[in-house]
Design a protein that fits this description.
The chain is mainly β. The chain is built from 4 helices and 36 strands.
């Protein structure tokens, strides 16, 4: 038995009487409004918390939509509470409130023109101004539930999750916080609570399977927060001989709880009050043959619903038992108020069981429900769009009908390839005979590996190129005379600006048509990569593959019109538009006199990605026998004012 900590009415009256007597004695013994004697009673109290709560922050960290996470915390009766024999139990609630961003940010202080003195002031502000996201976190509160971690004590009330995985719905939640009770007399001095977080999706990125009506969050990549407040709502005293009744009891003159009466007058005719319950008065004198109405059920149910009075008959001067009265019975589904509480068919009597609706597919399963006084089979699922799962989702009697979807690869030879659904599974994608997984192997003017690139890599050339130079091992200064390079003496090996490694080649100054050459082994097919960079977009410089005794054959130019071009015989063709100054570009030149006689093609990497291949174009002059020189050139007729650089020359992709 526990008793609420509140003042006993009898004690209040006694104190009031004593006070009045004292006043009269004083007034009778001294002059009015004078004071010659005083007594001081010191009143003190030592205040301590009744609960001890583990306030370690619950940090879920980075989470993602559809995740379900749990963390637990404990609530205990404090040691000072347990040491006090006068008190026994504590009732509390777990409320949720907006969480302030603490320490306070500059943006917050500027937005409200005020600096909080401490976190308590910040909390009070966010309780009233939670929409100020400079000062308060986006709220996590609606997505938290509190589950009883030790349900065996059977005295805690959980706050359920907004999402019910059993029904895949978000039912409307009662706005009641989780609550609990701890009682030393019941050896229940500690509660474990589990905080559950079901992460909702982000608005604008909600998948089709997220149930309609379920909440979402407005922003991703943001911090969300919520403060849990454990608040004591009641403390009760122990029940011992030194305490009077602090709770209602039979005989206190007030009808409380399950009591029906305090006095006979509280009962109907023919009944008396016995132990606060109305009972039939069978021993009162009466005239034989007299009758009167009677009722043996709970008086609150008399003449409610199907309940009605019976008849008592007087035999031999005494009232017989009540006959014919109808008292409450368990509610059944019949459109009547069987338990006489003023409500018809409440609690879905007879319902809740499984049933068959007679419909097809997922609409077959149903649940019995009491509706209009009879049990009805209500389908559990409504028709939905058909998906590949081996079920009749649209309830038309056919499973997975006419379901197709595009395969993951949809470029090149894979374009238009689809999968079909059979027995709840998608068929394997068949990309056809021209598909080559991984690296493209066939030179056929097709995108065989379905990555958007046609004949990429060296698939269309026999790469006979052997010369490779990264300039890192050469001496600083004039390149002329090093590594068999010859020509203009203004091409310098330097370390300041390079594509990779430690060195590259630079030429600068106001010069017209200057060049540098190097001989290589004669080849008719090959692939070569070179890194190029210009200090401005209004000057011209070229990398050239040259045939000794004949002239330029394959030309890649950073032109003064701001474009990177190649020559189709003598006609410029743009392969990259609007190049930027001081950016490294990698060009690859492919040529194969067998597969594409007297032609070459080029593509450009701009530091981010490879561009598309150019078409195969004719070499300068229309034909060549072999390539046996490399040439780097500042073009005739244009005064060069900014530096031009070139770096690594290699047959292998340097990216």
């Amino acid at each position: 038995m526990r008793k609420k900590i509140k003042e006993n009415p009898k004690r209040i009256n006694k104190k009031a009487i004593l006070a009045v007597v004292a006043v009269v004695a004083i007034v009778g013994g001294i002059a009015a409004f004078s004071s010659y004697e005083a007594h001081v009673i010191n009143v003190t109290a030592h205040i301590e918390n009744a609960l001890t709560v583990d306030t370690t922050p619950i940090e879920f960290g980075t989470v993602f939509p559809q995740e379900y996470l749990e963390e637990e915390f404990t609530i205990n009766l404090s040691s000072s509470f347990l040491a006090e024999d006068r008190v026994d139990d504590v009732e509390y609630v777990i409320n949720q409130k907006p969480k302030p961003i603490w320490p306070q940010t500059i943006d917050c202080a500027e937005s409200i023109q005020h600096s909080f003195q401490d976190i308590y002031e910040a909390r009070e502000y966010c309780h009233d101004n939670s929409q100020n996201l400079n000062c308060c976190y986006l709220t996590l509160c609606p997505f938290l539930s509190k589950t009883d971690g030790d349900p065996e004590d059977n005295n805690d009330i959980e706050e359920p999750s907004y999402y019910d995985p059993k029904t895949d719905t978000c039912p409307i939640r009662q706005l009641m916080p989780a609550s609990g009770r701890l009682a030393e007399s019941e050896q229940d001095i500690s509660d474990i609570w589990i905080v559950d977080l079901k992460v909702p999706p982000v608005r604008g990125y909600v998948g089709q399977d997220w149930p309609a009506g379920c909440p979402v969050v407005d922003e991703d990549s943001k911090d969300y927060g919520c403060d849990l407040w454990i608040e004591v709502t009641d403390i009760s005293e122990t029940n011992n001989e030194n305490n009077n009744h602090l709770e209602p009891y039979c005989g206190d003159g007030i009808i409380n709880g399950n009591e029906q009466c305090e006095y006979d007058a509280d009962c109907s005719t023919g009944m008396v009050c016995n132990n606060c319950q109305c009972e039939i008065e069978n021993n009162s004198a009466c005239a034989s043959g007299d009758t009167r109405p009677c009722y043996t059920g709970d008086l609150a149910t008399r003449n409610e619903g199907l309940c009605q009075d019976g008849t008592q008959t007087c035999v031999g001067g005494f009232w017989e038992a009540c006959v014919g009265d109808i008292t409450p019975v368990a509610e059944v589904c019949d459109g009547e108020d069987n338990n006489c509480d003023g409500i018809t068919d409440e609690g879905n009597p007879g319902g809740g069981g499984n049933c068959n609706t007679g419909l097809d597919g997922i609409c077959t399963a149903g649940t019995l429900s009491c509706q209009g006084g009879s049990l009805t089979c209500v389908q559990n699922n409504s028709p939905q769009a058909e998906v590949c799962n081996g079920l009749d989702d649209d309830c038309d009697g056919v499973v997975d009908e006419a379901l197709t979807q595009s395969c993951s690869l949809q470029l090149g030879v894979c374009e238009g390839i689809i999968q079909t659904c059979t027995s709840g599974s998608w068929s394997t994608c068949d990309y056809g005979p021209y598909y080559e997984a991984g690296t493209e192997l066939t030179c056929d003017d097709l995108d065989n590996d379905c990555d958007g690139e046609v004949d990429e890599g060296d698939v269309c050339v026999n790469n006979d190129w052997t010369y490779e130079q990264d300039f890192n091992a050469l001496s600083d200064g004039d390149l002329n005379g090093q590594d068999s390079w010859s020509g203009y003496a203004g091409f310098d090996v330097q370390t300041t600006t390079r594509y990779e490694g430690t060195k590259a080649v630079e030429i600068s100054g106001a010069e017209l048509d200057v060049s540098l050459l190097r001989g290589i082994s004669s080849i008719s097919s090959g692939s070569v990569y070179v890194a190029l960079r210009s200090g401005a977009t209004n000057q011209e410089q070229s990398f050239i593959l040259y045939e000794s005794g004949v002239g330029n054959k394959m030309v890649v130019s950073l032109n003064s019109d701001g474009n990177i071009t190649i020559l189709n015989n003598t006609t410029p063709v743009t392969v990259y538009s609007n190049y930027s100054a001081d950016i490294w570009y990698v060009a690859v030149i492919e040529f194969d006199d067998g597969a594409e006689a007297n032609k070459y093609r080029v593509r450009i990497h701009d530091g981010v990605s490879w561009g598309s291949w150019s078409s195969w174009v004719s070499v300068v002059g229309g034909s060549y026998t072999s390539i046996n020189w490399i040439k780097v050139n500042f073009h005739t007729g244009v005064v060069q004012t900014d530096s031009f650089y070139f770096d690594i020359i290699t047959p292998s992709d340097p990216i």
